[in-house]
Fold each of these.
Amino acid sequence: MIYEVVWVENKNADWKVATLREKIDGGKEVTDVSINRTNKQGQAFPNFDGIAPGAEVHGEFWRSPANKNYLFPPKPQTPRSGGGGAAFKGKQIEEAQNRTHEHVKEAQESKGQAIKVAAAMRDATLLAICVFAVSTPETI
């Protein structure tokens, strides 16, 4: 979430306490928010030295069970692996449409061939009927 820094106090080189306001209409104000240069996992807070009144900060707000407020670095956006995501689904849909297109094309070609065979059989039957209708048993 994005916050606006209302007030900040530098406790030491790696720790600040600030009052933050959410950057949305009617956003609530949170006081005594601890911001550390690096968290326990070693992630650095972006633009830690630029945190000053009036500045915008991006971070994840957390209130501890002891009712203390903290602002952590924003979580990195990692692409989902495996079978998730819109791009993956779009790719799967496109592949399915291509397969369907190929199958329809094959079916239409088979249908065309079947029509030709049926027409040839019809013509052969008509020729046979004409031959039998004109000829006598002796000429057959």
Amino acid sequence: MDYWFLGKCFLVGLSASCTVGPIFILTFNNSALHGFLKGLFTALGAAIGDGILLFLGLMGALGILHEFDYSRLIIDLAGGILLVVFGIVMIMQRNKFLSDVKVRQSADTLLLTLAKSLISTILNPLTLIFFMFIGSQLMPHTQEFFTRSQMMMGSLMTTLGSLVVLSAIAYAASRLHTVITPKKLAFISLITAGILIFIGAYFVGDAVKILQTLHAGI
């Protein structure tokens, strides 16, 4: 077993999750507003998404996908709209933090949180580009392709690396949940929503530019 390769995949997970992006913000926000458990499931969904993307990157599938303009258009549009919707929902729900009623986290809501985080990670265009580049850089000089076991173990190590960082962020942010006032929690939710809407609008704008380019080339 190539432990050096597995170590690099673990570092890829650490690097991907340390970047202050939509998932970092969602993990922090969910932990600060709802407690550690919801933040942990947000982190788990993102970590699984990172592992899947590394697997696809090692296969070369992301590189092939990025070659087609229409696939880039769909990813930018879907990812952007998803972030905008998340932001709008967050704004609509921010007032509940002003009440003293504690929201119970059921298994269904936690699984939904995991699914949202997973989809957001996979549809994030910047994350796709990152793993497309990393997938080509991890290839050892002595090999022409990755074996299935290498791809699976590398994906698992990336998931683990990402989960280590994001769960630590979730724990740190959850400490705020016990000391911060409801008004400040609502304000954090509003700021987070604004950031997500801004990033989502950027991706939607990029999708519009790609669409204009495609139409101009017809």
Amino acid sequence: MMQESISNAELLITLGNISSSTLNREIKENGFPTPEKIGASLYFKSESVANWLSNIANRKVSLNDRLLSSKQIEVIFNRSSAWVWMHFQKNKKMKKKAIYIRSRPYWLESDIHADQELCKYLKLLNQSEVREVAS
């Protein structure tokens, strides 16, 4: 049975847009799965990447779930870095769910949607955007 593979570009997007140099350091230093080179592209075994991510997150993680950086969360919520710091890094519940890659925190998109307060805020934000478009 052949394992599903994920390209280097897809992987960088899934892992919260981390840089390729950070990914290379993770491969060399922290046991990230080694890619297979096919032609000019690199491909990773999906199952190996999911296992590595589950290992650093200390829970089961699917590759269908995206990791979001603080900057991406700022854009999604349309808020400042101070707001993200207060609601994610200082918030005990969300801080426990943070996944650190090279000492930078990332959060799973599913964890954000599972938090009732953040989910309500996202719904309000989406409703206000719909009203603006309709006007």
